[in-house]
Amino acid sequence: MYLLHITKDISAIRTSGELHVSTGCLVGALYCSPLVRQRTGWRPHNLGAYLMETKPTTTPMIFEVTPDAPIPTKGVDYLHLGVIHLRTYLRYQSFLTTAENDRLDSALAAGLRTAAVFLDTALRNAAGCATAAPEFVNQLAAAVPAVPFLGYLYFEVLSEYLMLHSATPETKSCALAGELNNRLYKRLAFAAVDGMDQLFDLARFHPRHQQLVQLIDGVEPALVPGVGEYVRRRLSHLFARAALHPSQDAAAVTFRGTDLGTLQEAAPGLIGQMVFREIRYMPRYQQLYHCFEKAKALEAWDYWNREGIPTPFNGVLPKGEIGIHPVYPRSAIRAWTATRDSKGFLHPEQEVTAVLTPHLASWWVPPRHREQKPTADTRGTADRGAPTRRLSYRPSISGFSA
Questions:
Q1: How far apart are CA 397 and CA 69, in angstroms?
Q2: Which of 28, 60, 89, 300 is most buried per CB count within 10 Å?
Q3: How far apart, in whole angstroms, are the C-alpha atoms of residue 118 and residue 137?
Q4: What is the DSSP string of 252-276?
Q5: What is the pLDDT of residues 9-52, one digit of tens each?
Q6: What is the pLDDT of residue 364?
């Protein structure tokens, strides 16, 4: 397999002889996109071409991965990492001070109370109810500041809608190459949120229905009529799958008046996603980052080794995000710096003598000023009655499947 990786500091890689991996949607892999080897050079996937165009100061690298056996088509869906986030937090809860744990519990309880009505609406829609699409989207937009994970679900649903239904010449060109068009959702994100090109933070992604229509019209007008209903149906389904324990009936679970400890059992995926994002807002996150993220990466690396996966990919849809597992024992890896010709093809330039290591690249952004969570909503998204019994370690959590 040939993969493209772009780096900001090729000199550091050459000097150290090491490549560190990133966290995020691929948990702990070197973030890459596919390359197709042709007589005229290596053709990048449209995602890789986009990244090179928008990050001109980086250096492209070609990686050749030679595994010892065919690779199972198993990927990573970061929307379903909530159980791992929760398990990691409960295992290393002692790394936080008592005050930090208390603030975390309070933030979770407040977010759940504020968004409870919408969360229940989403579950009822997953079970067959049909809220009017504009009302559903507006309730969703109002709930995102309280439960930031909803912004990620919202964006992924719209990305999926655009990639699956687009019929522009650009998209058809990608389809002829066997690729989905990644530029669509990039345009959507940058148009929806000021500064998204500086910090890609989907917790800030919460367009109301009218703005959503305008955004889709700016990307591909023919897709406007179906977008609201697609969001309602698809997001409800994804929320139920990502949030709830598999034993739960979406028609029976309620977030209104339900304490945090009970929701930890019924909706571990959602609670884990909320815990992960609240910890990222803590002033000490720079110190905590490697503690929590390395624990999750170790789980992923062990799973990939057992399953024979040297190159995990991201997402239900093959968007072109694929990683290189840093501690896979049964594949050979070579790397070169590359130059890009006038037609966009890559050509290997100089081989890089460096090894992939199980070290996480440092990533930390000072916690942004939190958007003020709504305390009163005339559409009825807030619920004040739920008690706030705290999160606690329970043996059953460690047995949940990811």
A1: 34
A2: 28
A3: 10
A4: T---TT--HHHHHHH-HHHHHHHHH
A5: 999 999 999 999 988 889 999 999 999 999 999 999 999 999 99
A6: 55
How far apart are the C-alpha atoms of 112 and 89, rounded to whole Å?
18
Q: Token match 């009218």: residue?
A: 210
Tokens representing residue 396 in the block? 């059953």
What is the per-residue burial (b if ≥16 Cβ within 10 Å, else e) of 180-219? bbbbbbbebbebbbeebeeeebbbbbbbebeebbebbeeb
Distance CA 192, CA 341 (A): 33
3-state SS assignment for residue 63: strand
Collapsing DSSP to helix, strand or coil, 19 comes out as: strand
Do the Cβ atoms of 256 and 117 come closer than 8 Å?
Answer: yes
What's the one-letter identity of residue 114?
T
> Measured on CA atoms in the order 388, 389, 390, 396, is the torsion positive or negative?
negative
Spatial contact of 341 and 348, defined as CB atoms under 8 Å apart: no
Which of 255, 254, 203, 256 lies closest to 373 in space, CA to CA?
Answer: 203
Q: What are the tens digits of pLDDT across the range 206-259? A: 999 999 999 999 999 999 999 999 999 999 999 999 999 999 999 999 999 999
Q: How many CA atoms lie within 13 A of 271 on its CB side?
A: 28
- The one-letter amino acid at 219: V
Structure-token pair, residue 20: 């560190």
Share of the chain above pLDDT 70, in %: 90
What residues does 339 pair with on adjacent strands?
Answer: 347
H or E element in which residue 120 lies: helix 98-126
**Tokens representing residue 140 in the block:** 């969703």
Q: Which alpha helices (H) appear in 144-182, and where do they start and end?
A: 149-165, 169-176
CA end-to-end span of the chain: 27
Centroid of chain to Cα 191? 19
Q: What six digits make up the tokens of 87? A: 């398990």
Give 311-342 pLDDT, tens digit per residue.
999 987 889 999 999 999 999 999 999 999 99
Q: What is the pLDDT of residues 367-386, one digit of tens each?
A: 554 554 443 343 444 455 55
* Beta pairing, strands 75-76 & 41-44: unpaired
| Residue 126: both structure tokens together | 């997953």
Chain-wide mean pLDDT for the chain?
90
